[in-house]
Design a protein that fits this description.
The chain is about 40% helix and about 15% strand.
Length: about 150
């Protein structure tokens, strides 16, 4: 009897709060496999991701989703990735957002050109996912236990 009196007729279950995300990252790559793989890895690390496969989509999405960081491939189908980088670096809403170029380009001046366009870091594909995560954290100014 004592047990029955202490139980509520309807159990109220509180929904578990979703864990806060660490940062919002815009991932831009024309290769859908690369885009999905990288986005999934970032989400598994607690990041919120948005993705774009063209330069035009990246510029539009960057203005609307206000990312904390942008991962940008240089080989886009509609625009030169360096032009996208420069537009983002000069944009009203994106000028303070760190940009990490992630590209397989073999141009000798790729790193220098990327820095001149406004990128924070350059990572050559294929890359070590843990090294990229470390650069992301550094660019965000965070020191997480990896």
């Amino acid at each position: 009897m004592y047990l029955e009196e202490s139980l509520s007729p309807v159990a109220q279950l509180e929904p578990e709060p979703s864990p806060p995300h660490r940062a919002t990252i815009l991932v831009v790559d024309d290769d859908s496999d690369q885009l999905e793989t990288l986005s999934l890895r970032l989400r598994n690390q607690g990041f919120l991701t948005h993705s774009a496969q063209t330069g035009a989509a990246a510029l539009e999405l960057a203005d609307s989703c206000c990312p904390d960081l942008i991962l940008l491939d240089l080989g886009l189908p509609d625009m030169n990735g360096l032009d996208v980088c420069a537009a983002l670096a000069d944009g009203d809403t994106t000028s303070g957002v760190p940009i990490i170029i992630v590209s397989a380009t073999d141009r000798d001046d790729a790193v220098r050109s990327s820095r001149a366009a406004g990128s924070t870091f350059f990572v050559r594909k294929p890359y070590d996912p843990n090294a990229l995560l470390t650069l992301i954290e550094r660019a965000l100014g965070h020191e997480y236990d990896l």
